[in-house]
Amino acid sequence: MDYHVKDLSLADQGKNRIEWAEMDMPVLRSIRERFSVEKPLKGVRISACLHVTTETANLILTLKEGGAEVFLTASNPLSTQDDVAAALVKHYNIPVFAIRGEDRDTYYSHLKAVIEREPHIVIDDGADLISTIHKEYPELSEKVLGGMEETTTGVIRLKAMAKDGVLKFPIIAVNDAYTKHMFDNRYGTGQSTIDGILRATNRLIAGSYFVVAGYGWCGKGVAQRARGMGATVIVTEVDPIKALEARMDGFLVMPMEEAAKLGDFFVTVTGNTSVIRGEHFKVMKDGAIVSNSGHFNVEIDLEALESLSVSKREIRKEVEEYKLQDGRRIYVLSQGRLVNLAAAEGHPASVMDMSFANQALSAEYIKFHSTELKKDVYKVPDEIDREVAKLKLNAMGIRIDELTPEQVKYLSSWEFGT
User: Fold this and answer.
1) DSSP conformation letters of 53-88
2) What keywords appear on the UniProt entry (predicted)?
3) Do domains 8-180+347-395 and 187-342 have the same CATH topology?
4) Binding-site residue set for NAD(+)
5) Fewer CB atoms near the end CB (10 Å): N or C, the chain?
6) Model confidence over 107-160: pLDDT tens digits?
7) In the chain, where are the structural domains located?
8) Please, which residues bridge with residue 276 across strands?
9) Domain 187-342 has what CATH class?
């Protein structure tokens, strides 16, 4: 078996951690049990580009249990958990190509390694895998039945490809499932981002000014968690509706040029580039802590910060100190990459349970419905989204009401008046 991981001696530790996460993923476990009997993915090759974590491992094992041949690579150079990668190779015979801290060339060589397995289905997180197939392997794209995309940034890129008419196979935007973005993005990103900041800095959040750039579902989660820890939260936005929502939710709202003067902590979660720029660094406080929880490391303009700095050093693990000409110090966490995965362990398993349940069921859906789909980006079918929610409620021991026949008739009729 071909693979490229850091150290197979880490495999036993990784296996224990995979099993620990699995205990908190009952929805995916129930799907795996069905897959093990029905084998709906038999004969299907799946190449996945995801954060190589304990939760991802349980998705990969579910797909394999369904009969698929699965290949895994990392979607971010700093998010790989090396012990998990080793465990998947040694204990579960999954070809993995991922090493924490890999350089850009290695990252793309790993992408190509899973592409060259000629997958029928691709699973992506950030659209690097899909865009590389389109750019460098156009002949292989004709063999792909379809794919799934895990994150907002990737969905944006893929919708742009569809709009330009260059998308060569259908994509299911798993990120847009209600049971994904309303829970994973809000509660997962919210908790894991704060976790990453605390692990990296051990700084007190209570009493601070905490700046959140972007008020999508991820931004909402980070803002809520920071407020819960006693911070005064400032939201920056470009969308007037989201900015209004943030204010109505009780947060301060202002442009980044004003927030930069006040912030003690900064988190970018926009999916866009150059959100914190040179003009913002120039007015930040001494000791300001800057981090990113958006998918790519482009939200913080580190080149601008480098040009303003006279020195740079790693003062703590995952913390780089940039000293400016006037003596102020600005601290960047995890090289501007995903702080929740680079400095912590990513989302809790219980929330990834729903996200990866959507992935598994969407793979099954593509297997049997790809011929019905155009070369476009689709939302997760409602029946899958609702099934995931029902399974999660069942696992939590929660029962809900059902519509009576009278209520069904009332909701489907126009004849009833006041």
Assistant:
1) SHHHHHHHHHHHHTT-EEEEEESSTTT--HHHHHHH
2) Cytoplasm, Hydrolase, NAD, One-carbon metabolism
3) yes
4) 151-153, 185, 214-221, 237, 272, 293-295, 340, 347
5) C
6) 999 999 999 999 999 999 999 999 999 999 999 998 999 999 999 889 999 999
7) 8-180+347-395, 187-342
8) 300
9) alpha beta
